[in-house]
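Lecture notes, structural biology module. Today: joint structure prediction for complexes of three components.
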Amino acid sequence: MYTPDNIFTTTIDKAVRWSRTQSMWPVTFGLACCAIEMMAAGSAKYDLARYGMEVFRASPRQADLMIVAGRVSQKMAPVLRQVYDQMADPKWVIAMGACSSTGGMFNNYALVQGVDHIVPVDIYVPGCPPGPQSLMHGILTLHDKIMDGEINR
Amino acid sequence: MKSKDTRKTGFDKFKNILDFWATNSEEGGWNISSTDEGSQKMLEEESDKQVKIQTGSDVVDDFIIDEDTSDDERMIVNMGPQHPSTHGVLRLQAELEGEVVRRVKPIIGYLHTGMEKTGEELNYFQGPTNTTRMDYLSPLFNELVFSLTTEKLIGIEVPERAKTIRILMTELNRISSHLVALATGGMDIGALSMMIFGFRERELILNFFEKTTGLRMNHNYIRPGGVAADLPDGWQKDIKEILKVIPEKLQDYDDMLLDNPIWKGRLKNVGILTTEECFAYGVTGPSLRASGYEWDLRKSQPYSDIENYDFEIPVLNEGDVFARWRVKVLEIFESLKIVEQAMEKMPKGPYKVQDKKITPPPRKRLDESMEALIHHFKIYTEGFKVPEGDAYVAIESPRGELGCYIVSDGSSKPYRMHVRGPSFCNLQALPVIMTDSPIADAVAAIASLDPVIGDVDR
Amino acid sequence: MNPEILETKLDDYKKLVESLKSDGFEMMVDLTVVDWFRKKEPRFEIIVQLLSTIHNARKTIKVFVNDEDLTIPSITDIYPSANFYEREAYDMFGIIFADHPDLTRILMPDDWQGYPLRKNYGSGRIPVQFKNAPKVD
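The predicted structure, tokenised, for the full assembly:
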């Protein structure tokens, strides 16, 4: 098909924001039950690749988004912070599930009561565990948030 | 190849960085105490006595330390806790000589949730909510073992229909758990299609679970005194669909992998675990059966009348990663047999024990009867009292012997609730499997043991 | 299957375990501790579950440890599978297993204070408060 040369005008802001949402690579930060649902979201039936995020990066250097999937223990907290600090800016965090959002049903000595004590969280996804649909809704909400927000955060 | 001293300063430097993050983090201002790297590091050299103790008197010494090589050629490599192929937050410290793993030490606790402490605060009625989150790939087994232990302490027998529903649901859960084990195992070794396939078939079973229990995982469905709800209308249709689809798909897996030279080359004669080592390290489940020993609690110490079902125990003799993979595939076929029989013989009747002290009245009765309302309120707030005593019950979970030990002091909450997770024990065999094998095989070894870290750390 | 319960004294504990191992109880499946704080006098009760696949039998060993002297002989040289369980008991209850090859904390961070599963250790519950939450209208 022949497409003639076209010009369209937009602002740099919009272009940057759009490109950020369209290839947002998450870092694999699966901790507990929610990690299984995150994997389910990435595989055949729910197919996260539709939103340009099928590549779960093992290295935080290559990732933009950290999905904290599962409960964060006191022993894991420094590690989580280290992974977050290694990620390149701009970076976003989704707290997936009740445990990583608030500590969930485990209000005791071993767990950090919400991952927002350690890293800034953009989106909280409720559920125990949230289904793949909930996770996708969270991701799309994050996309909306990026599209509406500032480019230097 | 760092020398001993530089390695030590490396650790110190890492600790400083960690302290810096902990104290200078702007967000939240949460004070994190860093884990002490220094005290977790391995001893440089182990004396013969320690080696003997660690490996046990009946086990062949696997920790071969070659005296000729100097310390310079050894390298300590850290895997995890955030690593894609360690199945959760398992951390391994491996001592490498070139590419060969000489010693390895699993470090766990990164998912410690304090569930045993929480279990002492929840009453018996709420207990399954807690235990179901331990082994999140086989949640129904955790609920079952908690319920069986509680029922043993009270001394009640659940109705026939409840027993059959329990068997039906747990065996379906065994299939879904093994499918995830096959999927993630395939992904670790490089068969990425296997992952897509495994999760696809698992969705079928999870859809049925969602229909029955309301949740895809962490169901809280099997409770002391029966099950939470009856099977939904038209459940036979769903089961028939599962019985039809899963064997076809398993055939696909076999077509893809069974004669695949890469698959066989990666898995055969890798990570061998003998029966003696299994006994010494308490390894149960598919890993024990893959080493040529026929031991399945479903046959030898049956629960919920599973002795009335006709099924076989797959046993293979090789004891390598390939055998452990194959046993899981064959077990899916056997579980399908049990599911089919359970569907055919499903008896009619109540699905909860008809004891007003334990079972809350149905929702309909609350509108018409004051007593029912009081009963309902009392059971949901106070729970039911369990006579004094202690009990240990073990069942065969997809990973091995899953035990629950409850001490009751006569109140409505357990005085002490302990769960014997199979992954916790199986993980101890990891050094035996991994020592003196290339680092590339380590991933296959971990995947074949199929540890669930939630079950390890609880 | 009801496990046979054997109660033993601290001095005979290791001998009993050794004799049971030679009797064909080849697997140690579980080791756990119960804290009878202010309820029973030797405060800690250690429960060991043994399994024999040959006889298809189970045995439960119970032994009490005093609060003043928390030491108990380790059985890792008889059953290597006791390794993690004894470390867990040390981590959670502070029981000291003599001659254990590597008695360090296993589940909690290394610099953790106290023994969480003891009855006089609080659960660490943080009350939920919504004081500063923004008003929703």
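Point to remember: The CA atoms of residues 60 and 86 of chain A lie 6 Å apart.
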